Each structure stands twice: as structure tokens, then as C-alpha cells.
Amino acid sequence: MSEKTDIQAKWSKSGPHNYSWTKRIPVASGMYWHSHGDPDSAPVPLNVAGVCNGRPSFVMCGQYGYSESIDCEELGGWWMPVIEPIAFDGGNGE
Questions:
Q1: What angle is formed at CA 87 by the lines to CA 81 and CA 91, rounded to 5 degrees?
Q2: DSSP assignment of the chain, as one string?
Q3: Is residue 32 part of a domain?
Q4: pLDDT digit string, tens, across residues 54-71
Q5: Which of 51, 53, 81, 84 has its CA 20 to 30 A from that of 16?
């Protein structure tokens, strides 16, 4: 049985998904939660541009105060895909 790190233990939630925090760098485009690993700091959602034409995946500029894009590998830390919400039903419960 493997021990969870502090961040995995604090932020792990059971749910209908198979996502968990990982140090693997995202390779597909999409929204990802990112953390530098401090369990007392909230993770931030970042829009990642996936691997394309030999360029590694990167976080686009203008997010979270970044003035230029930054490679995900350079950013490091922990990653988890953002879970898409269930479609809105109009609020009438139908």
C-alpha cells in the first residue's frame, strides 16, 4: 500500500471520476487544476495548450498573473484535470 502525500490526502475526494493529483505533466489541451504542493494554498485552474508540433504543453499567458506563456514542465507541481459540470437543466428540476 502506498502512502499519499500531504496534498493528495488533503485534496482527494471520492466521486464519479477517476482523476487524482499527479506530477505527470499534461499532454492534452484543456483545463487543469495546478498546485505547487502547499496543502494550505488553494489550487488554481489553468488553461493548458497541449503538445503540438514538437512544442511541449504550456500554460498560456494572461492567466494567474503570467505575462508570457510558460511550459508545464517548467511550472512543475501537481496537476489534475478540471471536472466538467453536469449540463444545466434550466433550474426547473426537469
A1: 135
A2: -PPPPHHHHHH---SS-----B-SPP-S-EEEEEE-S-TTS--EEEEEE--BTTBPPEEPTTSTT-SS-EEHHHH-SEEEEPPPPPPP-TTS--
A3: yes
A4: 889 999 888 888 899 999
A5: 51
